């Protein structure tokens, strides 16, 4: 049953393909709709809530600290964040039958990669590490992440492990 839920979630997130320039808004709208839908599975809702919070964090911090950045940069961070989470879910499915120690090691790798590649170097660690420090959460990543860099790094790390 757990595997089936993860596969359904995976299909939902892979289907989020949209054109650049509209990516940020499209991802934000889709995840907001998922979070607000009372019929949404709890696991799907929690993943979408992370994505929504990450997107909101990115736009707020970019307006504060990088007001001259382009919509393209915002979209590229949104795409990378979505891909990072999707890649993580794919790896969860792939590692599902492996020993618990390997599953935990893989999860820790994703967590540390997001934490070790901040975009803004935000001093409010309690806020940016809220998901990271929450053991109940599936997406235990830092909100302050350079998602493009983190995605590049995690793909290299995972390729070495295979």
Give the strand content: under 5%
Shape: globular
Mean pLDDT: 88
Helical amount among residues, as a percent range?
Answer: 55-70%
What structural class should be given to the helix and strand makeup?
A: mainly alpha
Count the E strands: 0
Q: Distance N terminus to C terminus?
A: 26 Å
Which ranges are low-confidence, i.e. pLDDT below 50, for 5 or more consecutive residues? 14-21
In short:
By secondary structure, the protein is mostly helical. It contains seven helices and no strands.
Describe this structure as you would to a colleague.
By secondary structure, the chain is an all-alpha fold. Helices cover about 70% and strands about 0% of the residues. It has helices at about 1-15, 25-35, 40-65, 70-95, 100-115, 125-130, 145-160. Helix 1 (about 1-15) packs antiparallel against helix 4 (about 70-95) and helix 4 packs parallel to helix 7 (about 145-160). The longest helix is centred in the middle third of the chain and has 25 residues, at about 70-95. It is globular, with a radius of gyration of 15 Å.
Note the topology:
Elements: H1 2-14, H2 23-36, H3 42-65, H4 71-95, H5 100-115, H6 125-128, H7 147-161
Helix pairs in contact: 1-4, 2-3, 3-4, 4-5, 4-7, 5-7
Task: Name the descriptors.
single chain; 69% helix; 7 helices; mainly alpha; 162 residues
């Amino acid at each position: 049953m757990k595997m089936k839920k993860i596969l359904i979630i995976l299909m939902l997130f892979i289907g989020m393909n949209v054109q650049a320039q509209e990516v940020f808004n499209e991802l934000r709208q889709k995840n907001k709709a998922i979070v607000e839908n009372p019929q949404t599975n709890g696991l799907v809702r929690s993943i979408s809530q992370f994505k929504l919070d990450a997107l909101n964090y990115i736009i707020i911090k970019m307006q504060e600290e990088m007001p001259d950045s382009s919509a393209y940069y915002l979209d590229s961070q949104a795409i990378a964040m979505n891909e990072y989470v999707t890649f993580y879910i794919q790896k969860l499915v792939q590692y599902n039958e492996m020993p618990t120690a390997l599953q935990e090691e893989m999860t820790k790798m994703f967590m540390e990669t997001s934490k070790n590649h901040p975009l803004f170097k935000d001093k409010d660690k309690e806020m940016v590490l809220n998901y990271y420090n929450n053991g109940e959460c599936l997406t235990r990543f830092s909100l302050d992440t350079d998602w493009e860099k983190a995605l590049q790094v995690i793909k290299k790390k995972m390729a070495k492990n295979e």
